[in-house]
Amino acid sequence: MNEAYRILKPNGIFYAITPCYPHPAAFVDPTHVNIITRRTHKYFTAPRHRAKMYGFTGKFEVIRVKRLKFSQETKKHSPLVKALKNILYTILPNKKSHILWEFKAIKES
């Protein structure tokens, strides 16, 4: 999050879609050190910026945070992604599996 904040211009927009708890996708993404929940964004955004205690130096303002449900459409995906999506949708069909974050970087111009 520090690097995302660092490279954004003042009022730049951070946009991410991540798998979130309790959906199994939150546990299989090897890029996530910690599990993302529907409240994780509060550590990085106004008014409290709670992630400062963990070394986060940026400031974001929430534009939008939303739980998402993806279709099982897999035509444009690799065989591995198709297989993973099929497994996930078999386990928890029609569940909201990801969270969309849209933040504005609060910086001096």
Structure in words:
- Strands 1-3-2 form a three-stranded antiparallel beta sheet.
- The chain has one domain.
- The chain is elongated and about 45 Å long.
- The chain contains three helices and three strands.
- The longest helix has 13 residues, at 79-91.
- By secondary structure, it is an alpha+beta fold.
- The chain has helices at 2-7, 25-28, 79-91; strands at 13-19, 60-68, 98-105.
- 10% of the residues are buried.
In DSSP terms (H or I, runs of 4 or more residues), the helix count works out at: 3
Work out the count of structural domains. 1
Helix content: 10-25%
Shape label: elongated
Give the averaged pLDDT, no decimals: 82
DSSP strand (E) fraction?
A: 15-25%
Major sheet size, sense and barrel closure: 3 strands, antiparallel
Main sheet: which strands, in order across?
Answer: 1-3-2
Rg, alpha carbons: 16 Å
Order of helices and strands: HEHEHE
Tell me briefly what this model is.
This protein is of the alpha+beta class.
Helix and strand arrangement:
Blueprint: H1 2-7, E1 13-19, H2 25-28, E2 60-68, H3 79-91, E3 98-105
Antiparallel strand pairs: 1-3, 2-3
